[in-house]
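Case study.
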Amino acid sequence: MNQNPQPMASLLQVSGVTLQYKTKHHLVTATYRVSFDVFPSDRFVLLGPSGCGKSTLLKAVGGYMTPTEGTMKLKGQIIKRPGPDRVMVFQEFDQLLPWKTVKKNVMFALEASGKLKGKAAEDKAMQYIEKVNLTKFANSYPHTLSGGMKQRVAIARAMAMEPDILMMDEPFAALDALTRRKMQDELLQLWEDTRFTVLFVTHSIPEAVRIGNRILLLSPHPGQVKAELNSDGSDEIDPRHNVKLSERIHRMLFSDSVEEVGVPVHD
Amino acid sequence: MTDTRPPAAVNIRPEYELQTQASRDFGVVEKPLTVFEKLYNHAGLRKTCLLILMAILWEVYARRLNNPLLVPTFVSTIQAFWDAMASGDLLSKSANSVRLLLQGYAIGLSLAVALTTFAMMTQIGNDLLETLTAMFNPLPAIALLPISLIWFGLGDKSIMFVLVHSVLWAVALNTHSGFKSVSNTLRMVGRNYGLRGVGYVRKILIPAAFPSILTGLKIGWAFAWRTLIAAELVFGASSGKGGLGWFIYESKNQLDIPAVFAGLFTVIIIGLLVENLIFRNVEAATVKKWGMQN
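After joint prediction, the assembly is written out as follows.
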């Protein structure tokens, strides 16, 4: 399967990646020979149950760990260490520096990476803070913001870097359902504006279907690729399979634990 | 299927919708505080009241004991304090002590910073720091004074040596444990934006570990004070100008007990000033403002 439907070259190439990490007593294999390609402006979702190594995979793309087997290339360069060309948005609310205001947090990213300085950094920061509707809170400290607002700051900080790939590790998982829904809409709106490339990790099927245009399905223990699917975000009944996309994914994920499935079921 | 239950078994209530008001329409709802509550909410005032109460108890006890050689009254202590201040003796001796203290503190801090930075960057540095703090932190600074006297002779240098010893380990230990408890997310954020080495320590680890560092600074300060006064008591004046410890020792030799108390009083006052003017404000401007401490 080396044929690319898109005419563009892929931005991120992950080929045959096995990831292992050591705990005190065991050597854990998180993913086994995972391959996929991310193209520019993709909203690429890594979806799977917990234990499928999706977060570990994202950490490896981020450069926080090196694969024991296989390669990861960003724009043809092998990924060796963390860098500002791949910015990460974490699930935890404590990813903002508590000693800096919202504006300073965004500026910190630009200045620490040496991308911009002084006034230029401030302008760029304010531009992206406006994009996430937090202009009023630019001078507030993170501990005075709600969870959703903190995540919006983190997204603004990451987007201000204008990275090759924006990586999001279940960024909305710790939010309540209403805020989560709103943040998903906002993220899609932001994507409409700037068409950034995003690699999004989630364990929620509806979120994957809404956010992604391409979904990589991983099986657990260790993570292996099960399927790579397209999504148009609508989750309507697909005439080719006669089921909703979310339903199809659900069955694929559950076919591991329940042996009898494998045949398309019709209602 | 027909429902045979009587409809009255379910209490059906009408639905309703309301228009909410914009918050600017209903003004500020606030319960005014009474005068007592306002005064009571003032931390400085509460503490001042406690201090006054303690002074009164002291005065009453000392008057009933009526033995100025054991416990002079509060009033006579204040009198002695005032006289010593007015003559400039106590003031210059305090200044000597504080100058020495600040020098020792500064050297101790710089060494602690260098040591912990080294410890954060390399494994061997980490091992070195852990071994050294385990060895030297329990060792009382004053126990090193005899050695210090032999190495550096009578004078500021040997006091400085024990001062640095007392500051260094307390600060290094707290800073190091603060660094180690910095959340993994913050570490990854720092590295994500390309920070490494000294920049990483300065821009991520130090601010993130600031609550522990501040605790280390306070403990270091207290240790330094104790060590300094103790050292001065042991070998007194160097080159003609002693410090506070020497003032206390001298006054005791002259059986001028109110002056001894006045010397102790000065130690306490300087401690209170540093705590309330310096550390309190540093705290308010950093960890409290950042929401890292309540």
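Observations recorded in class. The longest strand of chain A covers residues 27-38. The domain at 8-84+201-256 of chain A is CATH 3.40.50.300 (Rossmann fold). We will return to this complex in the next lecture.
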